[in-house]
Amino acid sequence: WTGTGVSGSGPYVFDPTSETQTLTYTYTDGNGCVNSAQTTITVNPLPTVTAGTYGPVCVDAADITLGGTPSGGVWTGTGVSGSGPYVFDPTSETQTLTYTYTDGNGCVNSAQTTITVNPCLTFSGKIIWSRDSISGVANTNLALTGTASASFTGTPSTGLYSLTVPVASGSFTLTPDKPWSNASSAARNASLLNGVDVADAARITQHVTFANPLTDPEDLIAADVNRNNMVTTQDAALINQAIQGRLTAFLPANFSKSWRFYPTSYSFPNPNIPWTFPEVRTYTNVSTEQSEQNFYGIKVGDVTATHNNPAGLRPGSAPQPLIWTAFDRTLTEGEEIEVVFRSQGFVNLAAAQFALGFDPGELEFLSAVVAPGLPFNEASFGTFTLPEGEIRFAWYSATGASVQNYTSAYRIRFRVLSGGGLLSEALSLDAEALNPVAYTPDLTPTEVRLVFLQDVPVRPRAEGEADESPATALYQNRPNPFVEQTTIGFTLGRDCDASLRVFDMSGRMLFENHAFRAAGYHEVDVRLASATQRGILYYELVTPDGVLSRKMIAVSKD
Fold it and tell me: What are 168-185's pLDDT values in tens digits?
């Protein structure tokens, strides 16, 4: 054989600089006759293989990830084969591993790496919600620093964590941290404001005014929103501004976390002055496994302990709902409209919050004006999130306040950017942005509703009658048409007996609700389960002022 880099009878080393190699085979027979033949061989380069560099591992590190390149190769070594995970030999202080890779041409190459195998220390425990001493706190990060470092990112809903460092002993500090996110409204509500609402602002105000002092150290820590080691009206104001959408008020420059933590083994020496509590665990010259290293977590601002129930609606009978009513209308592009909101059920309330959501492509907010003499004012409306289509209302007080039913409480002006639709289709309570809830002075929650009235009152007001006096009216049911269940709203002009009845077209009564009711707006849920109760029905409201009636349509599920 002859050719570049080849002579004699082999073996042969091919020229790696050439993609092909031409070889000639020459033969001489016994007569001295010579002949030859040629062949061409494709020469492929060996694959470039790396095994990587790794820090020390523990003898029980069965889940270490080795990152040889290209991927798809095989690791070999003492106690190691295949693609992992790997359990290292605890009898050896070092472990030599070989990573072998075969490419598509069948060319094989390998690389080696040496890993130091050490004894290890493990720290484990649970992050526990302080208010029930059971529930885990999710999405908590933990950092272990000192002789060696390790981190744990994002505890599960159980709150459990475990960290391992490849040393036999040492001194350490273990620090929990629960960062918040302002990436979106949903993330913001899920982290920063979960469990924080106007009830907490009202509770802080009750403490500051000595109406109902806070005595639990965890309540005081939660109430210290600005972390100045005291509880003042500023803490309540910061919560209120955060609810209105000004999150930078809730998170000053020196405060980047919405949770605080302390070891479960810690006991407050003076519960009324809890501010010097430790927020880390420290270890000096430890050489054994550290288990049950638990922390209690306190949600900053959540004085009333509703973090695990962010809706805030506690079990029990709630007071009557706070209802805002406004008349619906058709929107005309370019016009400026004033929406008047009247109240019902604003009786002995100490706090309320809600968000009015609107489509910024349909409506442009201009102003909000509150009627004089009410317990809240224009500052109760937050416009920090107007670009997101939100007008937020947040109000609180140390004591209860009431507003006369059907009072014209506030007026909001809009410019209509896109017409043709109804106001009720463009404006609504946005429960995802902010939980609509109101509270009595003992912090019992109740619902907040927005009801659009489709018609002008049936009974006109008498001359000289105050605008705040309701007029008897019957409104269109919703939804309509409906399947089995619908809601009928009506307004009573005075305290009186009122009957709501539903009939089919033959005059057969299908439903009746009779009660003595106060003046103002009311709703009745009507359920018609019979398969025969379909088609056009009519309903009537009977009061001492007369009878009002309307039609509605019941349809089948099919």
Answer: 889 999 999 987 655 455
The whole model's pTM is what?
A: 0.69
- Residue 87 CB neighbours (<10 A): 14
487: which DSSP letter?
A: E
Which single residue is written with the structure tokens 């140390």? 398
Kind and range of the H or E element at 425? helix 423-426
Q: Is the peptide bond before 85 cis (omega within 30 degrees of 0)?
A: yes
Q: Is pLDDT above 90 for 124?
A: yes
pLDDT tens-digit readout, 435-469: 899 999 999 998 898 988 765 444 444 444 444 45
Q: Please name the amino acid found at residue 326.
A: A
Residue type, 93: E
Q: For 338-357, what is each residue's pLDDT tens digit?
A: 999 988 889 899 999 999 99
List b or e across 92-121, with b for residues whose CB sees 16 or more CB atoms inside 10 angstroms.
eeebebbbbbebeeeeeebbebebebbebb
Cα 187 from Cα 381, distance rounded (Å): 22
d(CA 289, CA 150): 15
Phi/psi at 204 (5° precision)? -65, -40
Cα-Cα-Cα-Cα dihedral sign, residues 272, 276, 278, 279: positive
CA distances from 189 to 180, 241, 250, 461 (A): 10, 14, 13, 44
Is the bond preceding 310 in cis, omega lying within 30 degrees of 0?
no
Residue 389: what are its φ and ψ, rounded to 5°?
80, 40
Give the position of tokens 């049936």: 458
